[in-house]
Fold this sequence. Notes:
alpha+beta, nine-stranded antiparallel β-sheet, eight-stranded antiparallel β-sheet, 17 helices, 27 strands, 25% helix, disordered N terminus
Amino acid sequence: MAKYGKGQDKWSKAPYNFxxxxxxxxxxxxxxxxxxxxxxxxxxxxxxxxRADLFQKYIEKNVQGEGKERNCFSGEIQLEITTETxxxxxxxxxxxxxxxxFYAPNGTKRIPGSSIRGMVKNIFKLLTCSAMxxxxxxxxxxxxxxxxxYFRSMASLSVDFRNYYKSQITGVCxxxxxxxxxxxxxxxxxxxxxxxxxxxxxxxxxxxxxxxVIWKDESCECYTAKMGSKKHxxxxxxxxxxxxxxxxxVKYEWEKNRIHVTKEIMEDYLKDTKRGNANNDEKKERExxxxxxxxxxxxxxxxxxxxxxxxxxxxxxxxxxxxxxLLHFGFGPYYRIPYQSDIAAHIxxxxxxxxxxxxSDTVFGRKEFWAGRVFFGDAELKSGGSSIGKKKTHPLxxxxxxxxxxxxxxxxxxxxxxDAPSKPSIRGYKFYWHKSCTExxxxxxxxxxxxxxxxxxxPVAVGSSFEGSIRFEFLTKIELGALLSVFDLAKKRNxxxxxxxxxxxxxxxxxxxxxxxxxxNVDMAYSSLLGAAGWENNLLVTDETLFLKEFRQYMEEKCxxxxxxxxxxxxCSELLEILDAKQEEYYAxxxxxxxxxxxxxxxxKNRRPLQTISQIVSERK
Length: 621
């Protein structure tokens, strides 16, 4: 048995890894069908009606087929899903808000079709080299939420990263974040940091574990709270000037030199859930949020009184601007700032193409263009399903792309941050490793602290069986072959398993899926509609070899045309490895290698990169 561990201290640990992204988006046959009708326009610019009409023509052409052979199929893929580790699909919290209930809308436990769809589509997009597109503003149907991530690296062990932060925070000024209706601005302010403590001020410097502002008649005291031995304290004043017109000695400059806060900067700021904490603690995030922190801002009449009727919102802040362009803002002088590059900048443009109609568009649909032709039903419990005990889970953390050493490709073994000159690309599609899961792996003990991200759950036991189906309509041989290829992975390697539900980082949710193709016999279906037996079952179990062969030949030709055959083969190889449930048999310390890193002691501080799937696999050989 090979042992994984060569140079283990050089790498990060994680319960997940990434299958590399395709080099380019491969067009589906539908893309070629559209080409003669586009007239120089790409699909994005075609009229909605025109796109829908062409899509209907494509379906009709395939229904009619060529000669006597049909090239359009309807039916279903029957799924038998068997749990091989404890499995829990969360539905809702109980009335006390403590217990998470297993999904069971009609009283019988089920795996929702939406969960199956998400799992299948993720693998489908990889196997078909479909494009990676950002979510639209009003839709989450894309592959990623594009935004600027935030960071703070005053204490980073990487000198380069620490210096980069300092260079971006240089030139920060004190100001007031003010708002009127839905518009927000930054206006300059005066600030001083009195040392020692100013007589008559409201408290000790950095008192408490949350930031706070104490408002006075014409000023406010700002405390950033303690961060270890570090703390900060400022007194903010509005800027004054002479007011000769009204025979007053001074007035406040509430409208002068103000800088507009753009919608993009506002949205990026509000999406920074790590503000004030590293654990996605909603309470701490609100405490440090200038717009929501109860101890940071004034709203309504209080704000109007302080700003002499100019604004209905005000909060002291620090900010950096170039001329009239605001770059970023925050509470204390060393606040979290956004990277200049957004997430989309790290995904190859060839893979973001909006003009290519890929397999995902064709089969699953593209919301603004046409509907999908696959439909996922719930998988209902058929046997087993006994609960293994109601216990609190270990913390279930959310994705953290700010850990760039895990989410971005490294260079010569050195981690690259989101603004690195090397312009690193994202690692790829995220999958969780399979591993055994005992009670201690997922259950908190009585001695564990009750912290954020834990829920009381009641998973189903190993060996529970669910049955469901994927219904499809009017798919061509190649399209149906693409869909079947998701489940064919388990036939290529019989140790391939899939992941469903919560607790994936802890080893939960490993399932075996047996898929069986059943095609609709169209002629028999309609001829027997009015027969004595009524609508008979005309779904016939069918060999899927022909469909898989058609899809493989198509991908081979397209990859050859685009010189991406080698990278596609590597992609498929990595996918098989991370879906292989026998990895634990290959490595003596697999659970240690695939555990979550800890905040105490802080295992993130060294920013060690994550090995690729291929690197891990190579060490077992």
